[in-house]
């Protein structure tokens, strides 16, 4: 293997004498960054234990590990009467068929059903048995019956059509009962979160001409956790965005999805991590979604170091507000003993195991030993 830093464009990424074209392209970027930014020539050069807090990453949150059941609606089960349901109501004053009166009624959007002579009765949110008692009591109050027998049967239930897209296992349009039409139920209907799901979920509901109160708006002093941001109606839709992890911790169950609504789960597609230098398998590796990746973890993905004296590692990190990346120097020996030295990596980081005097001497000894005996290296 070539040990000169100036010759990195030729064969630093070779393995067993075979040049890997993909890794070679990664090597060019890594070598260029190392040459330009390593050492005293760079103002963005830091040591792992003393680097600024702005460069120290925090552990990732994984929405798949959040208790999303705490976000489920608590409006009732499948037997609960909902707005838009069609009911059959039978009222009998006695056992005679001539004294029975049967009608079909639809529960209006305000939750009430209108019955002939009896008038409006609030039925949404209750089960059929409770609805029978409410109708019977109202019939007695109006003076039409003394002790009627009321039977309520659900003929059809209104369903909300909700479209679920983004990082879910089975994106499609689903039908949900209005009483169970919430973010969690929509995601569950779509098979749950995909592996690349992010924390952010945007819900777009049809705008019916009035701005409804959002569940929990960012900045609300009464909100224990800022989990929701809302936007004004646009193009016939009103929307709000929630953070699944924060919302699950808060346990708020007010994230409704209306008929015709859309649930969009954020997709995370982080840039890969590139690992090169004195490792067995220099290449770029997918950055894990929802899991932490450290310097030692990245080097392990690359098959570990190929030189026992390797210790100096450069983490080359792109900066949003700077054309020059930050270069963070890590000691492998310290990283194996100190958690603070084994820093977390971010998408797009380059991990370069640097050549040093010690590694050059080790390679020279190996070559000399191999040349003399033709057997395995001395170390």
List the helices and strands and how they pair.
Elements: H1 8-11, H2 21-37, E1 45-47, E2 86-92, E3 100-106, E4 112-115, E5 119-122, H3 128-141, E6 149-156, E7 160-166, E8 172-176, H4 183-189, E9 197-206, E10 228-234, E11 237-243, H5 244-250, E12 262-267, E13 273-277, E14 283-285, H6 295-301, E15 312-317, E16 326-331, H7 332-335, E17 350-353, H8 357-373
Parallel strand pairs: 1-16, 7-12, 13-17
Antiparallel strand pairs: 2-3, 2-6, 4-5, 7-8, 9-11, 9-12, 10-11, 13-14, 15-16, 15-17
Protein model, in words:
32% of the residues are buried. The chain is built from eight helices and 17 strands. Residues 1-41 and 210-226 have low confidence and may be disordered. The radius of gyration is 33 Å and the shape is rod-shaped. It has three domains: 5-60 and 271-368, Outer membrane lipoprotein wza domain like (Outer membrane lipoprotein wza fold like), CATH 3.10.560; 72-76 and 160-267, Roll (Outer membrane lipoprotein wza fold like); 86-156, wza like domain (wza like fold, 2-Layer Sandwich), CATH 3.30.1950. The protein has helices spanning 8-11, 21-37, 128-141, 183-189, 244-250, 295-301, 332-335, 357-373; strands at 45-47, 86-92, 100-106, 112-115, 119-122, 149-156, 160-166, 172-176, 197-206, 228-234, 237-243, 262-267, 273-277, 283-285, 312-317, 326-331, 350-353. The chain is α+β, with helices and mostly antiparallel strands and 379 residues long. A hairpin with a 5-residue loop joins strand 7 and strand 8. Strands 1-16-15-17-13-14 form a six-stranded mixed beta sheet, sandwiched between helices. 20% of the residues lie in helices and 26% in strands.
């Amino acid at each position: 293997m070539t040990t000169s830093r100036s010759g990195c464009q030729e064969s630093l990424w070779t393995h067993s004498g075979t040049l890997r074209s993909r890794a070679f392209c990664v090597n060019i970027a890594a070598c260029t960054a190392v040459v330009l930014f390593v050492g005293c020539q760079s103002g963005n050069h830091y040591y792992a234990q003393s680097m600024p807090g702005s460069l120290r990453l925090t552990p990732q949150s994984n929405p798949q590990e959040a208790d999303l059941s705490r976000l489920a609606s608590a409006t009732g089960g499948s037997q609960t009467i909902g707005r838009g349901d069609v009911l059959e109501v039978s009222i009998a004053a006695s056992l005679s068929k001539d004294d029975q009166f049967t009608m079909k009624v639809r529960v209006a959007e305000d939750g009430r059903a209108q019955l002939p002579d009896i008038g409006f009765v609030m039925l949404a949110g209750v089960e059929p048995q409770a609805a029978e008692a409410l109708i019977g009591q109202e019939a007695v109050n109006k003076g039409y019956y003394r002790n009627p027998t009321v039977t309520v049967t659900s003929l059809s239930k209104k369903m909300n059509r909700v479209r679920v897209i983004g990082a879910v296992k089975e994106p499609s349009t689903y039908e949900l009962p209005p009483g169970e039409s919430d973010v969690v139920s929509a995601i569950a209907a779509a098979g749950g979160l995909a592996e690349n799901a992010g924390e952010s979920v945007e819900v777009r509901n049809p705008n019916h001409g009035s701005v409804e109160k959002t569940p929990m708006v960012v900045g609300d002093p009464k909100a224990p956790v800022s989990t929701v941001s809302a936007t004004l109606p646009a193009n016939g839709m009103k929307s709000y965005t929630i953070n699944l992890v924060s919302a699950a911790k808060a346990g708020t169950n007010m994230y409704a999805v209306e008929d015709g609504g859309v649930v969009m789960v954020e997709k995370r597609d982080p840039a890969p991590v590139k690992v090169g230098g004195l490792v067995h398998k220099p290449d770029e590796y997918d950055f894990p979604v929802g899991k932490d990746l450290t310097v030692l973890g990245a080097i392990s993905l690359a098959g570990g170091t190929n030189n026992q004296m390797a210790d100096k590692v450069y983490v080359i990190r792109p900066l949003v507000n700077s054309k020059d990346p930050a270069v963070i120097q890590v000691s492998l020996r310290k990283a194996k003993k100190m958690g603070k030295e084994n820093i977390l990596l971010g998408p797009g980081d380059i991990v370069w195991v640097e050549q040093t005097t010690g590694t050059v001497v080790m390679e020279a000894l190996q070559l000399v030993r191999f040349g003399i005996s033709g057997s395995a290296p001395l170390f």
